[in-house]
Design goal:
With 322 residues, the protein is mainly α. It has a domain of 210 residues. The protein has 14 helices and no strands. The longest helix is centred in the C-terminal third of the chain and has 55 residues. The N and C termini lie far apart (72 Å).
Length: 322
């Protein structure tokens, strides 16, 4: 039911935004166009009242200063209609294309690219935790609940509680369950990536819709009885060009790069989960920490791997009194 509501809501939102772009006055959407319209009206009023030429020149000089200022330059590219058509239209299409719940979490998917911690730190924590627990298992010491609760990695902590603290779980069960968890994580991650890539494709398309709307408005103002109205002509061109710009920027600077980063983060997380799976199997078999270290160190990034191996060699040298 919610998915049907989301589809209907997306359709209504998309159509409403296009209609809004058509009927909303340009001078109320773009500050530069607002200033330009005020300038035109003031200039016309001065001419009708036969104001002194100095006053007219002062008005023109004032508007020229605004045009040449940094604020005036930036305000040319700030347009409310264009932003709503592109951003709102892209989200409306997402509501139609994806499940309602997933579409509502789209902002959270984007935020994940900025909130994810450092991968090197996560790999190193898992490595040292597993090696430390392997030493206890090899010495036939129990791993306490307090030690498991102190593990920072959530996946490792949960799986230690489920698989290592409970002796009835076999290696085959650990292998099967963890692989299923990895597959489900892959599936959920690809849903997020697909949504971001879809929005990256939809944004330029809605930019083109804004372009068509702007060109129709521009041609309509040219074809009127009074000829081309400069303010209307510029307003139509502004919507036409700025929506295209917004569509490309949102696609190439936000949606598609974040989708690519989300894919890389997914691959890193899958590798970390594979490392945890191997560590759990070593713990279940009560392997020596040296044996586990030789295999788990492969999962570490090259620079971190070299650093860990140097530290272990130094510790071994101190133990031998070298």
């Amino acid at each position: 039911m919610l998915d049907k509501i989301g589809t209907l809501l997306g359709m209504l939102m998309g159509v409403s935004l296009v209609i809004f772009g058509i009927i909303w006055p340009d001078h109320l959407s773009n500050y530069y166009m607002y200033q330009f319209r005020e300038f035109e009206l003031s200039l016309e009023a001065l001419k009708v009242s036969q104001a002194p030429i100095e006053e007219i020149q002062a008005l023109k000089a004032s508007f020229k200063m605004f045009q040449e200022s940094w604020f005036g330059s930036i305000s040319r590219f700030a347009d409310l209609k264009s932003l709503l058509i592109v951003l709102g239209g892209s989200y409306a299409a997402t509501l139609i294309a994806f499940r309602f719940g997933d579409a509502m979490r789209a902002i959270l998917f984007i935020a994940k690219a900025f909130l994810t911690g450092k991968a090197d730190k996560d790999f190193l924590e898992v490595y040292h935790t597993v090696i430390s627990l392997c030493e206890k298992r090899a010495n036939k010491e129990l791993i306490t609940d307090e030690e498991i609760s102190a593990v920072k990695n959530t996946d490792l902590q949960n799986w230690l509680q489920d698989f290592i603290a409970v002796d009835m779980v076999t290696e085959e069960m650990i292998e099967e369950i963890v692989r299923s968890e990895i597959e489900m994580y892959n599936y959920r991650s690809f849903e997020e990536i697909d949504m971001l890539e879809f929005m990256g494709r939809a944004a330029p398309a809605f930019g083109m819709i804004g372009t068509v709307v702007g060109l129709i408005m521009m041609l309509g103002s040219v074809g009127g009885e009074g000829g081309a109205d400069i303010a209307g002509l510029m307003g139509g061109m502004a919507v036409a060009m700025i929506t295209t710009l917004y569509g490309v920027l949102l696609s190439q600077l936000i949606f598609l790069p974040i989708a690519s980063k989300r894919f890389q983060l997914k691959e890193t997380q899958v590798l970390l989960m594979e490392m945890i799976r191997e560590g759990l199997l070593y713990l279940k078999r009560r392997e020596l920490p040296e044996t586990a270290a030789k295999d788990l160190v492969i999962y570490l990034p090259p620079k971190l791997r070299k650093k860990v191996m140097q530290e272990e060699q130094a510790a071994m040298g101190q133990g031998l009194g070298l």
